[in-house]
Amino acid sequence: MERQMTRTFNIPAEATLEVLGGKWKLLILCHLNCGPGPKRTSELKKAIPEITQKVLTQQLRELEEDGIIMRTVYNQVPPKVVYELSELGISLKSILDQLSEWGEQYIRQREWKSSCSECSKNA
């Protein structure tokens, strides 16, 4: 899928949804936002077991193309590739934190459980 170079949006939220929309991108960004340091593809796959490897790779490429994350390749054997939030991605931190906080409250209110170890530290 080739992304358009220029685009007109009806409202700013439409631009946000263009970049962050879909089933997996917010989950990927939340995992990159929590915890120390960059994450390898395998760590993201383990954190989001329902996502296929193909879709994870595609979503990571799109987020990188949109400037939200950075991909770093280390020249070693076997090759090591890590992902982290870019400067633009870091500007989403407060939004990602608020989404997590709201989700924690919603889970508690519904008396559900969360398997997120990061979340349970704050509860």
Automatic annotation (TrEMBL):
Pfam families per the UniProt record, alphabetical: HxlR
InterPro entries found in the cross-reference section: HTH_HxlR, WH-like_DNA-bd_sf, WH_DNA-bd_sf
Every HTH hxlR-type domain range: 11-111
Keywords recorded for this protein, A-Z: DNA-binding, Transcription, Transcription regulation
Name under which the protein is recorded: Winged helix-turn-helix transcriptional regulator
